[in-house]
Design goal:
By secondary structure, this protein is α/β, with parallel strands linked by helices. It is built from 8 helices and 11 strands. The N and C termini lie close together (about 10 Å).
Amino acid sequence: MLLCTVRGCGQPLTRTGPVYACPRNHSFDVARSGYINLLQPQDRRSKYPGDTAEAVHARRRLSAQGLFLPLLHAIRDLAALSPADIVLDAGCGDGYYLGALAEHTGCQAHGIDISQPAILAAARRYPHCQWVLANADRQIPYASQTFSLVLSITARRNAPEFHRVLRPGGRLLLAIPAPDDLIELRGPSRDRIPVAVADFAPYFTLAAHRRATTTADLDAAAVADVLHAIYRPLQPRPPAPGRVTFSLDLLLLQPVDAPPAQSPAASR
C-alpha cells in the first residue's frame, strides 16, 4: 500500500482513475507513462535531482549491449525469487534489474527513484511494474511489512526504512561496487563490505556474500557511456576503447527481530 508523502500525513493512498488520494484529500497524479509522482518540494536538493537524462540514456545503451547480463544473473540467483514475492527496488534507476527480474520470475515488482528521467524510462519499458517518483533517502512511501525482498543496487541506502517495509522473514539484497569495479578507469578501490555490514548492523545481519564480475572490450562510444553513467563521475577524460571490468559485491542480509527504536515518522 502506498502512503501519502505530504509532510505530517502518511495516510494510505487509494487510486481513482488517474489520481491517487489520501483521506486528507492530498492527491497525486499518475503520469501518462504510468508512474506515480510522490516527490515533494522538500525532498529535492536540486531542480533536477538524481540521474540526468544523459546518464539514463547511457546506461540504457550499455544494458542493450548485454554488458550487465552476468550481473543480472548473479542477482537473480542470489535473490531466488518466486511469483509469490513482492519486491521493492529502492533507487531503481531505469528499472533494468527489477524489470528483468519481474519478467523472469513473475514476482510483483515496485521501483522507486528520485530521478524523473529514470522513472519515466522504467515506466515506458516495464509497464507491468509499479514505478514511483519519490525520495527513498527520507522515507519509503509504502506501508510497513509490505515486501518480501528489498533490492538496493549501487544506490543510496536507508537501513531503518528497508527494515520497516520488509515482512518478517524477508531479506535485503545489497549490491555495492567491488574493489575491481571499473578498475581500468579509476584504479583499484577499497573493499566496501566491512563498512556496509557495519552500517546495516543495527537492523540486518549478513547471510550470504557473492561477487559477480564481468569484463567487456568497449569502443570509445561505450566507454564514454560508462563515464556518463557511473554514480560518482570520474575526472573528465577523452574516452578511448579498451577492456572494462564491471564487478559487484552482492550481500544478502536478513532483518533482526528487534531493531533500534525509530522515529514516529519512520514507523508508519
